[in-house]
Amino acid sequence: MSDYIFGRVLTAMVTPFHEDLSVNYGVAEKLADHLVNNGSDGLVICGTTGESPSLEDDEKYQLLKVVKNAVGHRAKIVMGTGSNSTAKAIKDTQKASKIGIDGSLQVVPYYNKPPQEGLYQHFSAIAKSNPDVPIMLYNIPGRTGKNLEAETTAQLAQDLDNIVAIKEASADLEQTARIKIIAPSDFFIYSGEDFLTLPMMTVGSVGVVSVASHLVGKEIQTMIQAYENRNNSLAQKIQEQLYSLFKVLFCNTNPIPVKYALQLQGWDVGSLRLPLTNLTPNQQEEVKKNLQNLGLL
């Protein structure tokens, strides 16, 4: 386990479903254990990759209990408890905290597109209402329609002791660099995109909230450790080897491709809840070819 608050490699875990699309808690338990045994320092549940918009609240809390039971103290568990309703985000974080989480992932409010002051007040209210819960902000403008600016991030980290990290998925290296420069030194930046894990480390990030780590967690962990140990040639080599996989896992909306990849490996993770749909035949072939090329099938 890394000495960083949530580790280096956090897998944004898929939510397995039965054929009737009810949550398959048995497979979730096995998958969580597998991920922790294969490179993951932590697990992010009920996030984008976990199809959180399509999960009922009781399903989310049951999933938390199951995953906690599966991994014990071997990995950090971060749960997506964010919302575009500040009151709901506060309530959901409080409930998850009672069950037991190592951190809360708080996404930028989507659809209502608040100004930066609104974002500051939103995250401040959540943090103050849950003072014992470490909070990871989640900036993903492509899904929320709003960018959490570096200055707002830094101010939140400065003012609230339990806002400790950010999953930065803006694909903006300049913004990442600025957060590193102006935020407190004990505030941790995580890449929100596998492809940018290594580039973002060069400007101050410490790890990744990963989708590809479902399949290549050990390799991603090795890449990060190689960079930290100044073995840049090895880190670059792994980045190049995994480039095609990183890209193909986003050939369609996440988590559609990674669920199909897991199915190819024999994981009974099931299908997707609407409005998500399956890959096209051409995309399926592309994912399969990439896994074969990497020896993952």
Content of β-strand: 5-15%
* Known CATH architecture: Alpha-Beta Barrel
Rounded to an integer in angstroms, the radius of gyration calculated over CA atoms is: 18 Å
Adjacency order of strands in the biggest sheet: 1-2-3-4-5-6-7-8
The low-pLDDT segments are none
The termini sit apart by 28 Å
The average pLDDT score comes to 97
CATH homologous superfamily grouping: Aldolase class I
What does this structure look like?
- This protein is an alpha/beta fold.
- It has one domain: Alpha-Beta Barrel (TIM Barrel), CATH 3.20.20.
- The chain contains 12 helices and 8 strands.
- The protein has an 8-stranded parallel beta barrel, surrounded by 6 helices.
- α9 packs antiparallel against α10 and α11 packs across α12.
- It is globular and about 50 Å long.
- The mean pLDDT is 97.
Notable traits:
297 residues; TIM Barrel; 12 helices; globular
Which helices and strands occur, and which strands form pairs?
Layout (H helix, E strand, L loop, with lengths): L8 E4 L12 H12 L5 E4 L11 H15 L4 E5 L5 H14 L3 E5 L8 H14 L5 E5 L1 H4 L5 H10 L3 E6 L4 H10 L5 E4 L5 H5 L5 E4 L2 H16 L3 H17 L7 H9 L16 H13 L4
Parallel strand pairs: 1-2, 1-8, 2-3, 3-4, 4-5, 5-6, 6-7, 7-8
Outline of the structure:
The chain has about 300 residues and is α/β, with parallel strands linked by helices. The chain has helices at about 25-35, 55-70, 85-100, 115-130, 140-145, 150-160, 175-180, 195-200, 215-230, 230-250, 255-265, 280-295; strands at about 10, 40-45, 75-80, 105, 135-140, 165-170, 190, 205-210. The longest helix is centred in the last third of the chain and has 17 residues, at about 230-250.
